[in-house]
Amino acid sequence: MKAITLNLCAWIILPFMDAIAKYLSSDLSFFQITWARYFFTVFWTLPFMFFFFRKNLTFSENPKLQILRGIILFSANICFFYSISIISLSKALTLAFVAPLVTTALSPFLLGEKVGFKRWSAVLVGFFGTLIVIRPGFIEFNLATLAALGTGCLYGVYLIITRKLHSTDNPLLTLLITGVVGASIGSFFVPIVWINPTPIQWAWLGLMGIFACLGHLFLIYSLRYANASILAPFGYFEIVTNIILGYYIFNQFPDIWTFLGLFIIISSGIYIFRREVLKY
Fold first, then answer.
1. Where in the sequence is the domain holding 114, given as residue range(s)?
2. How many domains does the structure of the chain reveal?
3. Distance of alpha carbon 116 from its chain centroid, rounded?
4. Is residue 269's pLDDT more than 80?
5. pLDDT class for 226, splitting at 50, 70, 90?
């Protein structure tokens, strides 16, 4: 029960980071917002680890894989923050929910895992759910929609790399390295799109970093008490907070087709994770 509570707390908190990013995107570049998300993640995480988990500040056993993981997650965040600057939070997140399906589809090639007919069928059903949300030919298929799908694809690869790192590096160390990689890469390019934030906007950016740190810390601690495959379906709870924030802050509410596609994607994702649990 403790693991589920911590996990749900994470999925309640993280959409607040997305809402702040969408709110600021009307005045600041989505790339600048992405950079700030990583900069403030390091800003808050490093002191926390130094005072409470100093022994975990060691060199990674898989530095190349850690850097690759950080680059992929940074790219996923760029795609997602761009998509929510154009389309609704709920639609962007629904399309990003293809991540578990992408992980399943790629695991035979990248992890050497066997994926049977039933799980391949679930992947195809989930893909059908994304087509319902997008409705190509009926509504405009824009770059923001493609970016949201790209978020899910990149995050699916990120999950595969995280699996490989799970048995070697400490999760808190992984969180810090991910932040350092994203902040370092972003710092090279952010001057190109830099807009001087106001003091209030700086405060929002700092708060966004706090939400990111708290959300990921809750996720890390939830994994101390339960297996990742057991907790994974609870990640879909994020859409609840997402829809509430989208409605009350941005006056955006998903249409019936988004809800239908969401139901299909979530159902196929939960089925895949149930198969994972039964496999072990």
1. 2-279
2. 1
3. 27
4. no
5. low
